[in-house]
Amino acid sequence: MKKDIEIAQEAKLMPIKEVVSGLSINEDDLELYGKYKAKLSEEFLKKIKDRQEGKLILVTAINPTPAGEGKTTVSIGLSQALCRLGKNAVVALREPSLGPCFGIKGGAAGGGYSQVVPMEELNLHFTGDFHAITSANNLLAALLDNHIQQGNEKRIDTRNITWKRCVDMNDRVLRNIVVGLGSKNDGYVREDHFVISVASEIMAVLCLAEDIADLKERLSKIIVAYDIDGNPVTAKDIGAVGSMAALLKDAIKPNVIQTLEHTPAIVHGGPFANIAHGCNSIRATKTALKLADYVVTEAGFGADLGAEKFFDIKCRQGGLSPDAAVIVATVRALKYNGGVRKEDLGREDIEALKRGIVNLEKHMENVSSFGVPLVVALNIFSSDTQAEISFVEDRVRELGYECARSRVWEAGGEGGEELAKKVLWTLDNKIPDFRPLYDVNASIREKIDILARRIYGAGRVSYSKEAKSQMEVLERNGFDRLPVCVAKTQYSLSDDPKLLGRPEGFEMQVREMYVSAGAGFVVVLTGSVLTMPGLPKHPAAYDIDLSDDGKITGLF
Description:
alpha/beta, 35% helix, 4-stranded mixed sheet, 20% strand
């Protein structure tokens, strides 16, 4: 069996200008990064602004397991399948982070014969967007510390600095550090912190900004600290907005590449869904909707994280209204949720499926609560038995939903045609009634309670002393009327990664919260979730190499 990287490296790529020609994109509309990737120019984005929009299809999943689900692979395969059926379709994805690429999760280019290419370039430096975001984040940090060093005109309370530095790599030793050591000229000694770049508010701002003017307005609202009277100090207050925007000038433009079947893919932005809002940029999605009749996009991890944030944050801020959703599940992952060990997942076990399918049922219930018609994509593995497949299909249909088998990893678009036909049928026969889950004007506590009880299944929510104090500050400064972005483990519907299946009645623990005023939401940290991951005992970096002739190996 060929590895993903081998399939990608053997592919014959088309020049990107030819790939997008069917979307009425000319070479002059592109800013080329070599032959196979490009950015869409600002002039082109303005030119298509008044075009009619196509249908929006969200791909989400059950909670991730070590068995793998293949959400990005299904997203790409579905778009390829729609094109095979004669439809004008585009897939809109997030960019990969170097953290998972060299850590444990892997990249974000799909897999098998449903990948976007050039795969190695996408998973590594791509067009430099993440580097620009990291630089803008750390420029703001440097200007903040310099402002304090040069007299502290804004009377910043150095015990109440909220802005963190970032790096796009899993590096646990940077979570809590001390800066300013040395002489007086080396700065003020204080505790500082790093987050991974995908958790930076700059990433969220870039992904939620409509254009350059909106980008600068959002950057200006970023809160970096509080003064000695408890008032927020912003990036605008310390004169950082213009220079940050200059660094992000090219990063805000959506990127275009291709699938293995030479269909268009727009890949832009990359916040994680467990510690950020988990969706690609509003600009990319809206651009795709102007270019295609059908747009397939994905949101990170399970529907309790990425999909909820897609609906409650991205759609609310971007004025988007999804027409359908696809929930990706596998027999193997459902058996894992039913208590089967990873090494035993290849054995038929209907009883474990009965126990584990409740996880899928809860995610179907959650997506339906937003008024979005859905289809379940059952990603087929060679170890799945007919009895197991039939059990899942029968249960999904018994609950009133469509279910389709997906074989896109092994067969690309052809393996996704059954799913594509079910999605098209759903779009033609089911009328969406999309609505966010909560009133944005509800209190922070009310919004958290709604998510905890209705999406996660919690019985109650508890707050640490620090979280209660932080909530009071947010309310006092008028930030309580923003959506909430809950940072939570991806492995469970609860805030405890060990609670598989469909846990109910548990206590969800909120330990910290802060406002991302530029992004326009309140971040709520629950359980033990971290905004700076660490590397595993055997990181993927150990297996990656570069041959003497310049060929990358070991990258998935």
